[in-house]
Amino acid sequence: MFKIRQSKYRHIFCDQPKQELCYTGFRVATATGEQQYIKASAKYWAVAMFGGGGPLVVGRHDRPGRFEDGTSPIVKGHHGSVLDMEWSPFDDSLLATGSEDCNIKLWSIPEDWEPTDENGLGNMAKKGLDFSESMIDLEGHSKKVTLMRFHPTASNTLMSASADHTVKIWDVESGQTVSSLDHELPDLTQDIVWDVRGDTYACSNKDKSIRLVDPRSSEVTAKLEKAHDGVKSVKLCFMGESGKMLSTGSTKQSGRELKVWDLKKLDQPIHSETVDTASGALIPLYDQDTCVLYLCGKGDGIIRLFEFEDKDPFLHKLNDGFRSTIPGKGYCTLPKRGLDIMSCETTRILKLTNKDGIHPLHFTVPRKSDAFQDDIFPPTAAPTPAHTCEEWLKGSSKAPVTMKLDPKSMGSGASAPKAAGKRVSLKTVPMLSKEVESLKAHIGYLEGKLKDAKIDFNPMK
Questions:
Q1: Which of 3, 159, 406, 418 has the lowest tally of Cβ within 10 angstroms?
Q2: What's this model's pTM, rounded to 2 decimal places?
Q3: Residues 6+ apart with CB under 8 A from 250
Q4: Confidence (pLDDT) at 155
């Protein structure tokens, strides 16, 4: 007997956004690589610009409009092009950037950051107020930094991959590397992803292998030889806490494909599916709260939707997804805290184009009721770390702290939750050392003044 599979997300849809709701006016950097080219927190988005000194456009989600070169403020401080950037999951204003100059910089975006005004135009009031003072520089890679990922549950813990064929884990507060995968990668890293708890990370390499690594010791715990036969870039994502992992790549005939792997038995995929024959890499964006997979293609305008179920056949196509004639250069999703919950927006994808700016794609489940729909909005990750970097290094393993998305449960009657990531007052070792040197210089100056005035003093008392 034929039976239609039931799904709450079967009719999810997305319309092409109007031009006035897009972010335009900036020239995208020409540097190419394995990165997504765009990243977003619940409050800001960031894109690397074309120009010297590694300029970066940082915009606000609530201020669509046109960026004006020379008028709108930018973030700059690197000596080479910025290749990848990453927002902290616990602080919506904390941004990490990796560059061709081999360094990683961390920035705290000011509260009054407004590249565009309320009319969607370049903010003349902020002209010349570019942001160039980073909080800390992380130095350790010998070649360009290509990829970065913040730890999903531990505070101030960052993972980075470089063209020097290493993957490093950083304690941001101390500014030091806590572990490094040094001699296992023969070629360039194509993707790095944490699992849900941050106890393992997966790494795909140009040698066509996928490695599962213990991040605390940097030991390879499992290796997938030749996960995909083709030469296209291999991208990865863990499917929540199901013990499954998804990879996208290509066949020998250059057809794009996706595979689902059981982490307990990696000898062969438990599901394999050919997608199409387009040339760009497939970027999997997985929503572990709703189990919906958004499959985005670099260089094309199609976003395919699948729902993951932890039983055969594992992936179910929902509908035709989103189709556009405008090709996308990069894609990223917003944290659920930044969505319009009362409009039943379950996901927002920012689509970066080469010449047409950024298109915010609002994926919505059609509902007639104006009430909060708790069946399509399960608890999501909160902007609160489950443990510190030190605790995690000692073996602590915790699931992400979750929060409800119902505005009433947070004591607010607004149309969207206000649980923004708290601004962290980060005091790192290099910052404290710089402060100590400044104080020493000031003390020396005061001692000199006392000597000039012939006032006796004993500095040892």
A1: 3
A2: 0.87
A3: 228, 229, 230, 231, 232, 256, 257
A4: 93
| 412 — pLDDT class (breaks 50, 70, 90) | very low
CA distance 342 to 403: 16
Region 193-212: mean pLDDT is 94
**Is 427 a residue whose pLDDT tops 80?**
no
How distant is the alpha carbon of residue 319 from its chain centre?
Answer: 26
* Predicted confidence (pLDDT) per residue in 311-331, tens digit: 888 999 998 889 999 999 999
Going through 88-129 in order, the beta strands assigned E by DSSP cover 94-99, 103-108
Please check whether residue 235 is in contact with residue 191, taking contact to mean a CB–CB distance below 8 angstroms.
yes
Q: Which residue has the tokens 């040339």?
A: 279
Q: Phi and psi at residue 380, in whole multiples of 5°?
A: -125, 170
Backbone angles phi, psi at 143, to 5 degrees: -135, 180
Compute, in degrees rounded to 10, the torsion defined by CA atoms 297, 303, 308, 312: -70
> Does the pLDDT value for residue 58 go beyond 60?
yes
Q: Are 93 and 106 in contact (CB under 8 A)?
A: no
Report whether the peptide linkage leading into residue 313 is cis, meaning its omega lies within 30 degrees of zero.
Answer: yes
Contact 157, 150 (CB under 8 A): yes
DSSP annotation of 27? P
Q: What is the CA radius of gyration of the chain?
A: 23
Residue 370 has what pLDDT? 84
User: What mean pLDDT comes out for the span 198-226?
Assistant: 93
Angle at alpha carbon of residue 237, lines to 269 and 152, rounded to 5° = 140
DSSP letter at 333 equals E
Is the distance from CB of 316 to CB of 5 less than 8 angstroms?
yes
Cα distance between the two ends of the chain: 92
Tokens of 76: 């700059």
Residue 303 predicted with pLDDT over 70: yes
